[in-house]
Amino acid sequence: MSSPLPRVGHSGLDGDPDGAGHVSADEYRRLMSCYPTGVAIVTAIDHSGAPCGMTCSSLTSVSVEPPTLLVSLRSASRTLDAVRRGGRFAVNLLHSGGRRAAWVFSRRVPDRFSQTMWRPSPGFGAPWLVDDAFAVAECLVTREIVVADHTIVLAEVVGVRQTEATPLVYGMRRFSAWLSDVFTDAPVLG
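RESULT FIELD:
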């Protein structure tokens, strides 16, 4: 029998049998900060031919056949506008040395691409952050779903370049390098 979870902040669980209480934005951010994730930068070319991009920790594998992923992008972002207009984008998976790029692309910084080395990806020319990404996936948009102030973009992966490197992760509101030797006796899944 498990013990009840300690109360950390307001939630719909205390005294509300339906669990239908309100969760504040701060509570939700605190909850999600406890879930570590890899760090990616989604990039695209806008209608004028200029590169644009944003840090994205909402990246999920959806299917292997066909290879499909999803990213969640802020609906009002210039990056999403470029993704919609072009129907394509790149996902740059950052290595542990890519912290500065992750920070730059997560803020409203003018001319982000002048602060990092990039070149067109091999397939269709989306910005590839060659010094900060250990992998890049070229993606073609297949579907969009608007959820509140974000848009979930489903895309088929049509090209991949990858090298060996330690991934950058984000959790507890800070960046860190993946610790690959923590669970050396754990079975490999998949």
